[in-house]
Amino acid sequence: MDLLRIAGGRPLEGEVRASGAKNATLPIMSAALLIDEPLIVENVPHLEDVTTTNMLLAQMGVSVTIGDHMVVEADASTITSKVAPYELVKTMRASILVLGPLLARHGEAEVSLPGGCAIGARPVDIHLRGLTAMGAEITVEAGYIRARAGRLKGARIAMDTVTVTGTENLMMAATLAEGTTVLENAAREPEVVDLADCLNAMGARVSGAGSSVITIEGVRALHGARYRVLPDRIETGTFLVAGAATRGRVRVNNTDPALVEAITLKLEEAGGRITTGPDWVAVDMEGRRPRSVNLRTSPYPGFPTDMQAQFCTLNAVAEGVGTITETVFENRFMHVSELQRMGADIRQEGNTVIVRGQAELTGAPVMATDLRASASLVLAGLVADGATEVRRIYHIDRGYECIEEKLAQLGARIQRLPDRAPMEAVS
Ligand SMILES: CC(=O)N[C@H]1[C@@H](OP(=O)(O)OP(=O)(O)OC[C@H]2O[C@@H](n3ccc(=O)[nH]c3=O)[C@H](O)[C@@H]2O)O[C@H](CO)[C@@H](O)[C@@H]1O
Ligand SMILES: C=C(OP(=O)(O)O)C(=O)O
Question: What does DSSP assign to residue 358?
Answer without folding.
Answer: -
